[in-house]
Amino acid sequence: MQNCTEDDTLQEGILLFQLIVYIPMLSLGMPLTMIAFWVFCCKLKRWTETRVYMINLMVADSFLLFALPFVTYFTKYKHPTDNLCATIEDIYFTNMPMSILIITLIAIDRYIAIKFPLKAKMLRSPLKSASICVFLWIMLIIYSYWHRNFYERKETVCFQKESTQPNYSLLFSLIFGFFIPLGIVIFCSVQVIRCLKKKTATCPCQTKLIQKAIHIISVNLCVFIVCFSPLYISLLLRFVVDFGGACSLLLKVRASIKICACLANSNCCLDAFCYYFAAKEFPEFPSVFPTCISMRFKMNQSQESQPPTDQVIT
Known about the structure:
Number of domains: 1
Number of helices: 11
CATH superfamily: Rhodopsin 7-helix transmembrane proteins
Number of strands: 0
Radius of gyration: 23 Å
Largest sheet: none
Helix content: over 70%
CATH architecture: Up-down Bundle
Distance between the termini: 83 Å
CATH topology: Rhopdopsin 7-helix transmembrane proteins
């Protein structure tokens, strides 16, 4: 493929857009995340699966927020790929996938709690959630190190893929790092919402709680799709363009990736609002609602176990 030179005017516009997005994001994201840390680590008494996932999500978002000023600086001054660049790249490219995977785990956890309330105690526990998170952190750190050393050694500018050779490792990351989690999140969220809507009439004592849970899940799903989908679709287009060798499209795709990355990174700030709703959710959902279902199930079991004569009398 021919060498594709970037338009300086376009790059200045992208940098200005990044500053417009990142400055308020950092101003809001840092204090909101610190408040969320205080709530989840100090104010809440009981350890639950959601609490474990949320703390890990806050850690991932905090590292991502820490990396953003460096990302902007490296983009503006075309910083070379030195040790500092490698460290920031590892932080950035580890914590965004981690945020996606943790959100996926939260969706799966809610699906199990609502769809299988009687088996949830056996399938779910804070220790199991913590073990899964530790495993994911280790796998992502190893993958990030391997990817940087085997696929990015020829790159000379930090946070910029100059090579036009198709990166099959990128395709693997897109499929297993986003598109499969996206399908899981959509499936689990839709199933949970459908289940909750069906239970509204059968469990009137929890109607208000159910409606709030439906709202929280719907908002989380929308934020997930809106924030991450444009970036990963743009990255998929980058792979297709590299594979097809279209230089004229490459410049546009590069620009779209940088713009969509701003939207994806804004998820760090939006997560803070999810923390707030999750904190309100802790004493009630999903622990209370499955209990309501379990009590109803036990009542039905006890009625079915009674002799037929008793049922006729009642």
